[in-house]
TrEMBL record:
Top-rank taxon, per record: Bacteria
Signal peptide as annotated in the record: 1-23
Name of this protein: Uncharacterized protein
Keywords assigned: Signal
Length: 248
């Protein structure tokens, strides 16, 4: 495993701090993303049920990775903010570990040692950033675990967090209904950062718009003018527009 120190990264850090608005992504992890995309893909196996013979034992369907594909990325450790750069990585939600592919070997770093990491994803036009959720608490003061994905950075950051839920097998032999397999599901929630806490974004549109104070009406109009196909798209529009309004 290669740990990289770079004077140029430090310089970029200082420039970013002096020229940008408040951010939650560490500038040195942002500055390290001059890396290539990765396109490896490993599919999921599927099975079929044959009638007239005993049913096979149930399986566990799904995986615990945020994304099974390897993506070239950068990792910043808590230890002296060391950077590990330009390695294919992927994140295991269940174990809270980041896998690193080093040549023919795969090594693992525990999530509690990682301050933040980022990777290049072909679905996004910019690098995707993740920050350790243990650095934040919820409204009740309980510490989070795992990682937040930073969807919108700035004065009111928008974050998402994906957790694992297991749906147990519910197959009924007599009725021949249900599933004989346990299924791993991934549930996503959205949060915003305020006063050092990660608070869940309200589900109702009016309560969500109230987060933006005097800019609420302007942002509501902006959302109407730019139709969104999903809740995440709507939140991205709202929080990004708020970032632009505050910055201006």
């Amino acid at each position: 495993m290669q740990v990289c120190y770079s004077y140029s990264v430090l310089v970029l850090c200082l420039i970013a701090i002096s020229t940008s608005a408040q951010t939650v992504v560490p500038p040195n992890i942002r500055a390290s993303n001059t890396i290539e995309k990765l396109t490896d893909f490993r599919g999921l196996e599927t099975g079929e049920m044959l009638f007239g013979i005993p049913l096979p034992e149930g399986k566990v369907i799904g995986d615990t990775y945020l994304d099974t594909k390897w993506k070239t990325g950068s990792i910043m450790l808590y230890d002296k903010e060391k950077l590990i750069e330009r390695y294919p990585i992927r994140y295991d939600i269940y174990t809270n570990e980041v896998d690193i592919k080093a040549g023919q070997q795969v090594k693992v770093i525990a999530g509690n040692k990682i301050k933040s990491f980022s990777w290049i994803d072909s679905s996004y036009t910019e690098p995707v950033y993740f920050i350790n959720a243990r650095d934040f608490k919820n409204e009740e003061g309980t510490q989070f675990s795992g990682f937040f994905q930073v969807l919108v950075d700035g004065p009111l950051p928008l974050l998402s967090k994906t957790d694992i839920v297991v749906r147990k097998a519910d197959y009924n032999v007599q009725m021949n209904v249900g599933s004989k397999d346990d299924k791993i599901l991934k549930k996503e929630k959205y949060y915003y950062l305020k006063d050092g806490k990660a608070l869940e974004v309200p589900g109702g549109k009016k309560k969500m718009l109230a987060l933006f104070g005097e800019h609420a009406i302007t942002i509501e109009t902006y959302i109407k003018d730019n139709r969104s196909s999903s809740r995440e798209d709507e939140l991205l529009l709202a929080f990004d527009q708020y970032r632009k309004l505050v910055r201006n």
